[in-house]
Amino acid sequence: MLMEIRSLGKGDIKNALDLVWLVFQEFEAPDYSVQGISEFEGFLSIYSITKMMDRNEIAFWGCYNNAALVGVIAVIGKTHISLFFMLKEYHRQGIGRQLFQTMIDTCNNDDNIKRFTVNSSPYATEVYHRLGFVDTDEEKTVNGIRFTPMEYLIV
Question: Which of 8, 11, 31, 46 has the maximal Cβ count within 10 Å?
Fold first, then answer.
């Protein structure tokens, strides 16, 4: 299996957001209220995401298996992970860790960042723990979105 991780441009974003929505519906939506699902879907607006890209507020990386996009990570403001999704058949193969490390290396090289945050969904908390994140508060629900605030420190 030949995997390639690369930065995504605006031309890649529709495919990335489609992948995120597909994985969200399978793994996250069952734990969310109708309000939470609607709120997340609204965040995935291609118009608002590309505007954020134009303002350099969000950056995306994708993992490709040959020409097929199989995983995505996005960071807002170079320190907050906003999206981290992998197709089911690619779970537990180290691809997420590679995506995460690519994001850290890129952001850290640019600005010497030492702290990353995420609001982890209930499904992903164990994934983030395995990556080295620690909880900074208890689970919360805001606008129907369930999450646990977490941080990752580079020492």
Answer: 8
pTM across the whole model: 0.91
Maximum distance among all Cα pairs of the chain, rounded to whole angstroms: 40
d(CA 4, CA 69): 9
Distance of alpha carbon 137 from the chain centroid: 20
pLDDT single digits (tens) 86-108: 988 888 878 888 999 998 888 87
Work out whether strand 115-120 and strand 80-86 pair parallel, antiparallel, or are unpaired: parallel
Q: For strand 140-142 and strand 134-135, is the pairing parallel, antiparallel, or unpaired? A: unpaired
Answer whether 69's CB lies under 8 Å from 16's CB: yes
The half-sphere exposure of 23 on its side-chain side, counting CA atoms within 13 A, is 24
Which two three-digit tokens encode residue 61?
Answer: 């990386």
Question: By three-state DSSP, how is residue 122 classified?
Answer: coil
- 70: Cβ–Cβ under 8 A, 6 or more apart, which residues? 3, 19, 63, 64, 86, 87, 89, 90, 95
pLDDT digits (tens, 9 = 90+) for 123-133: 889 999 999 99
